[in-house]
């Protein structure tokens, strides 16, 4: 009989005795286990292993399997046992965790067939690359980044209304759809950063137990508290944190329970939202424990719906939308046909689950974000007059056209065309920008400068007409013009608009 076969009998024995723990022992072997759905994942060790590492690995195995099979359950294990053997061989080697990144594993352990390539076998680039979490050659027609701050509040309140324990557990999740190998930067209202920079009086939070994704440059964070990273492609968790702080319950629950011996039990539950009226809690679920032998339920509520869940010995009060500053009431009635004595075991507390969008309990804020360095674009210089412009653009100010048709080397000054990053956001355009307009027709742009396609100058209009561009008033003999970048052009009322600056020496 192998050692792992002793696990289930020991587990059932400890469960019957009420002494179940996440670490079990048999002889000189330790069993460390977790339960997911109807499955037990067990790790064994004969030595003094690091327990936190073992449990982290087990949860990582669950995450990898779930990304491969969507639902990790007994049926998916039976249907995919060959792939599971391959994954376990890569996840752990000689008892040591190895490659646990699902994106890397999916590159060479797949569920689809591939054509055999002749030649010397090569490992996937992400395995040997310094940036193993991101593949090379990623391209998107539209670059997008989505960021979500998700927080959970854990509160334990006594029967008399005192908060016994409160903590905030949060995470920052991102969805990244960027081309190439971008390096991003993220700033938070971190208390350590604000104290170091003399902004101690500003609203800040003191983060604890911070855990970063492997893509974050830890040395940069330790130096200036800036989160700098090359993100994985797609969805991932950038960081998680915890705060031990006093938190006022966002949804306050008051309960009155009347038990009539050998007959019935009645509940009166009052829920009150204690956040601002402009916020709304969604998908509110209030779980109220009831006796195991309760039956004949009757409910009455002012809002939402109530459901009895006998397998969990609880009732669930569901409220789809709970605005701030509101108060609702629910009454429940159960029959008790077999009550003879008070239960000696303690009753679980009432629990509340809800979501409040655009609201963080801790007050954490994203103070800055964007690429860590300017985008690199080539400098374009005309080799001779007319290399870049085929026609004569007209610079208009108050209806008076200004002549810009002089060739290089003339007394009026040379024509210089230069492309470089100006800014990444329409709202950050420099203050000197005025209503001057430089009007070009499509025929004025040569192939090296013209935009490919019909909708890239004005995508929302669906046609190319004379293009209205921004220009600067100073210095006097230079006109700074901004046009949308060809491959990333978005209409300027969007906050993620990209610009390229063209400096044109007109010397009027």
From TrEMBL:
Localization terms from the record: Cytoplasmic vesicle, Clathrin-coated vesicle membrane; Golgi apparatus
Pfam families, A to Z: Adap_comp_sub
GO terms under cellular component: clathrin adaptor complex; clathrin-coated vesicle membrane; trans-Golgi network
Keywords: Cytoplasmic vesicle, Golgi apparatus, Membrane, Phosphoprotein, Protein transport, Transport
Annotated InterPro entries: Adaptor_comp_med_subunit, AP2_Mu_C_sf, Clathrin_mu, Clathrin_mu_CS, Longin-like_dom_sf, MHD
Gene Ontology BP term (one): intracellular protein transport
Keyword Transport set for record: yes
Membrane topology: Peripheral membrane protein
Main location: membrane
Family, similarity comment: Belongs to the adaptor complexes medium subunit family.
Function noted in UniProt: Subunit of clathrin-associated adaptor protein complex 1 that plays a role in protein sorting in the trans-Golgi network (TGN) and endosomes. The AP complexes mediate the recruitment of clathrin to membranes and the recognition of sorting signals within the cytosolic tails of transmembrane cargo molecules.
Matches recorded under PANTHER family: AP COMPLEX SUBUNIT MU (PTHR10529)
Protein name per UniProt: Adaptor related protein complex 1 subunit mu 1
Gene name as annotated: AP1M1
